[in-house]
Design goal:
The structure is a single chain. The protein is α/β, with parallel strands linked by helices and 143 residues long. The chain has one domain: Alpha-Beta Complex (2-enoyl-CoA Hydratase, Chain A, domain 1). It is built from 4 helices and 8 strands; from the N terminus they run ββαββααββαββ. The N and C termini lie far apart (36 Å).
Amino acid sequence: MDMNYETILVEKKDGIAVITLNRPEKLNAVNGKMRQEVVEVLDDLERDDAIRVVIFTGAGRGFCAGADISEFAESDKDASVQGKINKGMLMMARHIYDFEKPVIGAINGVSAGDGSQWALAFDLNIASEKARFGWPATALGIL
């Protein structure tokens, strides 16, 4: 399995795969590249009989601040971009929810938007005392 990714780190040891969201400068905000890489690695891990459980965590001081809103600037110019972003957000949570092996969230800080949605799809969450969950879209009237 290719372990070189741009937005995530993947470590496999003793039947456990740890996926670390690795955009700490953006509080691990999810962009299209991260969605693509997470889907790719989950597909690989699902086929890997040596892996029995997957753990998600975030690099730096947050788990995941939600969607990378810098992508939304492009969607203002092209409605199809916003459609792809929305579809990608829904697809990620569904992909995690449908994953055949147990998925654990190790929530180490801010978990908002996509991060909170993913946490709902995990089989189990372990949150540090610094963990904070939020749904910023509700303030915008968006579900």
